[in-house]
Amino acid sequence: MASPGKTWWGQRFLAALEGFTDSGRLARGRAYGSDSRILKFAIADAVVTATVRGNINPYYGVYKEPRYTTKIQMTPIPAPDWQKAIAYLGGRAGLVCKLLLNEMPDTIEAAFADVKLPLLPRDRKDFRLTNCSCPDHANPCKHIAGVYYRLAAQLDHDPFLLFELRGLSRAALREALSRTPLGEALAGVVDDHALPLVAADSYYTRPLPAPAPPDYRSFWQGGRRLPTEIEPATPAAVPGILVKKAGDFPPFWDREGSFVAVMEEVYLRVRSKNKDSL
């Protein structure tokens, strides 16, 4: 498992847990967030369910490798409060644009604080359920702590899990934002448009007869002189839509830096490399 907390929201998630959890117990559970320990991990209906492999300990009479079922559920935000949050987000173009592009705005936590709603956990009340089938009565046990770390790693790749864990799926969030006045204007720009399929008569391009004999003199010399100055190209209103839709840390990206930031640097180099020779 990659080191969790690579993004600011992953770091804030772990920092929030350390604020109301025994830091020593949380740290001991870090090793239980690896793939060798967590055999199954799933999120359905805002409930995180994991199967965690325990230890064999003959001293306590454990001779067969135990497997524990761990469940975590954050306290969902009620539907009326979600409507209030969507109305607030929908009135700010910067927030709506980034969310529709599958980017997590840096000010998203402050935006939820403005409407007095929690997004990241603040205390134990933000978790409706933290349960493990192991015999350890402490909460969180090391298995729950391991699932916390796995969840933080998942948030690094998909920050929109924060909304799902709070009771609003990605599709529902996008649909609600698209119904706001600003969302309606931006949704048409960022949405994918499927091109219609047109049947071709042949796999190869067939020559077409010319309507009249070509004027070779006009073809080579042209009817008008070419412009001496080329109008500079203006950047797109929403650049890099396809790249930004994957987010800062897509599933295939295992580096520490942001994928979007790396691609922005690549595009900048491509644009400026031969700029003087044009």
Automatic annotation (TrEMBL):
GO terms for molecular function: zinc ion binding. It comes from Candidatus Thiodictyon syntrophicum. Residues 117-152 form the SWIM-type domain. The keyword Cytoplasm does not apply. Signal peptide: none annotated. Keywords: Metal-binding, Plasmid, Zinc, Zinc-finger. Pfam families: SWIM (PF04434). It comes from the Bacteria. This is SWIM-type domain-containing protein.
